[in-house]
Specification:
This protein has one domain: Cathepsin D, subunit A, domain 1. The chain is 7% helix and 43% strand. It is built from 2 helices and 9 strands; from the N terminus they run βββαββββαββ. By secondary structure, the protein is mainly beta. Strands 1-2-7-3-6-5 form a 6-stranded mixed beta barrel. Strands 8-9 form a two-stranded antiparallel ribbon.
C-alpha cells in the first residue's frame, strides 16, 4: 500500500487554492509542501513550507505560529542558526505533533524565527523530521512518501 502523495509547488507565484498547480518547467523550481502543527488544543495548517534536505532542523515563521499561541517564553532555548544568506536567532519549542499528510511525529522540537528571507515562506521541513518519519523523496514522481517496509 502506497503512502500519501505530496506534490511539489514551484517557486512562481502561488495561489491559495486548495488544488495543486502543475509543476513548472522553470529551472528555479523548489519543493513546497503543506504541513499541520498541533500545539495544545490548537491546529495550524501551513501551505508554503519548503522541504529542504540541506537543512538539519525544522523551522517555522514566528508570525505564523503565533496564531496557535506558540510564542517565546523565558525558559525556551535560543540558538543562532546559519543558513545560506546569513545567520538568525531562533527559539526552540516542542509541539504536540507535526504532520506532513500521513507522515507525522509526536512531541517534536521545532525552531521558530523571523524567516525574513525576502519571499513568502511559512517554514522549512528539515532532515530532522524527514529522517524520523522515514521519508522518501521521489524526484522523478515529485512526491514524498513513507519508505516501504
Amino acid at each position: 500500500m502506497r503512502g500519501h502523495i505530496f506534490r511539489f509547488f514551484p517557486i512562481i507565484p502561488l495561489s491559495a487554492a486548495s488544488f495543486l498547480p502543475p509543476i513548472s518547467s522553470k529551472k528555479s523550481c523548489v519543493c513546497y509542501v503543506t504541513v499541520t502543527l498541533l500545539y495544545g488544543d490548537q491546529q495550524l495548517d501551513l501551505a508554503h513550507v519548503l522541504s529542504d534536505t540541506g537543512s538539519a532542523g525544522t523551522l517555522f515563521a514566528a508570525d505564523q505560529v503565533l496564531a496557535i499561541g506558540l510564542q517565546y517564553e523565558a525558559d525556551d532555548p535560543v540558538q543562532c542558526i546559519r543558513r545560506i544568506g546569513g545567520a538568525e536567532f531562533v527559539f526552540v519549542k516542542r509541539i504536540d505533533r507535526l504532520s506532513l499528510g500521513e507522515l507525522q511525529v509526536n512531541n517534536f522540537a521545532i525552531e521558530v524565527g523571523a524567516m525574513d528571507y525576502g519571499f513568502a515562506i511559512d517554514g522549512i521541513i528539515g532532515t530532522d523530521f524527514l529522517l524520523q518519519v522515514g521519508a522518501v523523496i521521489d524526484l522523478s514522481r515529485l512526491e514524498i512518501r513513507r519508505a516501504s517496509p
